[in-house]
Amino acid sequence: MIIRSLAVITLALAAFSASADEASVKRAIEARFNGVAVESVTKTPYSGLYEVVIGDEIVYTDDKVSYLFTGNIIDANTRRNLTEERQQALLAVNFKDLPLDNAIKTVRGDGRRVMVIFADPRCGFCKQFEQNLYKLTDVTIYTMLYPVIAPDSAEISRNIWCSKNPSQAWLDTMLKGVLPPANTCATPLDKNLALGKRLRVSGTPTTFLPNGQRIVGARFPELVQALDQASK
Length: 232
Hints:
The protein is built from seven helices and nine strands, in the order H-E-E-E-E-H-E-E-H-E-H-H-H-E-E-H. The chain is an alpha+beta fold. The protein has two domains: about 1-90, Nuclear Transport Factor 2, Chain: A, CATH 3.10.450.70; about 95-230, Glutaredoxin.
C-alpha cells in the first residue's frame, strides 16, 4: 500500500512539475514579448522543446525561453510534418456544427462526398479552385459566401444568394465571369463573416471536411487525396 501510495504521489508531482514548467514558459514569453497573447504551451517529446501557440501560428522555445524557433519540425524517420499535423489538429472543427443552411448547396452525382468551402466571388484562387472542383463527381459542395476580398464582394455575394438559382449563379460567376443581376433579399453574409472569424478563416478558399480537416488555399490535389482517404 505504501509503495502504491508513493507511486501515485510521484505521478502527481511529475504532472504538477510539467504543468508548472509550461506555465512558466507561458509567463516568460508574454513578459518578454509585451502584448503577445499565448493561447497554449505544451512540452513536446522532441529535444526538450516547448510548443507555443500564438493565434494560428506555432513556434517553439526552450525551457528558459532563450530562443524562439519558427518553421516545421519533420520526423526524419517517417518524414511526417509534425508541425503541420499539430496545426491541423488545433484548427479542426466540428463539421456537424457548421450552419449548412447558410451555404449554397451544389450536388453532383450521388453527392456522397461532402465539403464546406468559404469563398469570395472576387477571389482569383477561388475561381481557379472552382474550375477544378467542377471536374469532381459524387460530391456535395456547400459554399459559404465570405466577402472579404474586394469592396464589391458583398454586393456580388448578395446578388448570387438572392438569385433564383444561387448554385448556378455562383458557377456562372466563377467559371464564366457572368455576374448575376442586382437583387435584394435577406442574406446570411453577416453570419458567415462572424462564423469565419470564429473559425479563424483568414483567407479564401478555405475548405472543411467531415472529419474536421481544414485545407487552406486552392490545394486541389490535397483535397482529392483527403476525399479518397475519407471514402475508404
